[in-house]
């Protein structure tokens, strides 16, 4: 597989930094076996492209994962889990849905205003559901009376379950739907026999990423190997 370097651009997590990414060849089909290997090396997936930060003056982005058999929820997470037991889980292969598209657009408008994604939500949603990679993906749909409250797109590979993107109703803050979606992915990964849930990148200095450190134990890909993150948090 061939790889390319992106151009330098403003970091979405630390605006005073510049971001440089290593990208897989967008013309090649990203196979499950290839992505399994890349995920274990700290890469993530965006549509048909695998990527990993390789910024010249910053190493703040740490790929993190949860060993699901060892995860123990804290009191707040237990309350969030209990609060959302009225929602049912439906699992499906990725598909386009008008209700999901509206939920995605509302989420982008309210959670990421002026970030660019809110202006292109229709296109981004369509591309996400029409992914051209060969990675085995699923939608975890949390709903009540056929109304979607949260949708999580996940990848299934040999090394574990990878959380690609989650969007949810932002008008129900007390439910903690983002946290609930992760807790549900941990439980679903455990039931499916996956050893880890990959959560993407964690940046210690970014308030947007702070919720990830609450999931314990948490492992990070540091200096070429996976190790406990307890000494870095």
Automatic annotation (TrEMBL):
Keywords of this entry: Acyltransferase, Cytoplasm, Transferase
Localization: Cytoplasm
One Pfam family in the UniProt entry: ATE_N
Catalysis performed (reactions): N-terminal L-glutamyl-[protein] + L-leucyl-tRNA(Leu) = N-terminal L-leucyl-L-glutamyl-[protein] + tRNA(Leu) + H(+); N-terminal L-aspartyl-[protein] + L-leucyl-tRNA(Leu) = N-terminal L-leucyl-L-aspartyl-[protein] + tRNA(Leu) + H(+)
Record has Hydrolase as a keyword: no
Annotated ranges, domain N-end aminoacyl transferase N-terminal: 9-79
A GO term for molecular function: arginyl-tRNA--protein transferase activity
Domain (N-end rule aminoacyl transferase C-terminal): residue spans on this chain: 100-219
EC identifiers of the protein: 2.3.2.29
Keyword Ribosomal protein in record: no
Function noted in UniProt: Functions in the N-end rule pathway of protein degradation where it conjugates Leu from its aminoacyl-tRNA to the N-termini of proteins containing an N-terminal aspartate or glutamate.
Family assignment from sequence similarity: Belongs to the R-transferase family. Bpt subfamily.
Protein name, entry field: Aspartate/glutamate leucyltransferase
Source organism (scientific name): Acidithiobacillus sulfurivorans
């Amino acid at each position: 597989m061939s790889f390319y370097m992106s151009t330098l651009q403003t970091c979405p997590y630390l605006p005073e930094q510049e971001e440089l990414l290593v990208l897989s060849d967008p013309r090649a089909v990203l196979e499950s076996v290839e992505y399994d290997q890349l995920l274990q090396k700290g890469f993530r997936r965006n549509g048909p492209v695998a990527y990993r930060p390789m910024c010249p003056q910053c190493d703040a982005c740490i790929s993190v994962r949860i060993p699901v058999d060892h995860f123990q929820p804290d009191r707040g997470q237990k309350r969030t889990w209990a609060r959302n037991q009225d929602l049912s889980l439906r699992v499906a292969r990725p598909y386009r849905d008008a209700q999901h598209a509206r939920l995605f657009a509302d989420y982008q408008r309210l959670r990421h205003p002026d970030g660019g994604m809110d202006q292109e939500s229709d296109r981004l949603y369509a591309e996400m559901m029409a992914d051209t990679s060969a990675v085995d993906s699923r939608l975890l749909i949390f709903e009540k009376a056929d109304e979607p409250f949260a949708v999580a797109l996940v990848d299934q590979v040999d090394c574990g379950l990878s959380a690609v993107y989650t969007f949810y109703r932002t008008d129900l803050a007390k439910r903690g739907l983002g946290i609930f979606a992760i807790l549900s992915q941990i439980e679903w990964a455990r039931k499916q026999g996956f050893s880890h849930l990959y959560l993407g990148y964690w940046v210690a200095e970014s308030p947007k990423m702070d919720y990830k450190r609450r999931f314990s134990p948490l492992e990070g890909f540091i200096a070429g190997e996976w190790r406990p993150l307890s000494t870095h948090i």
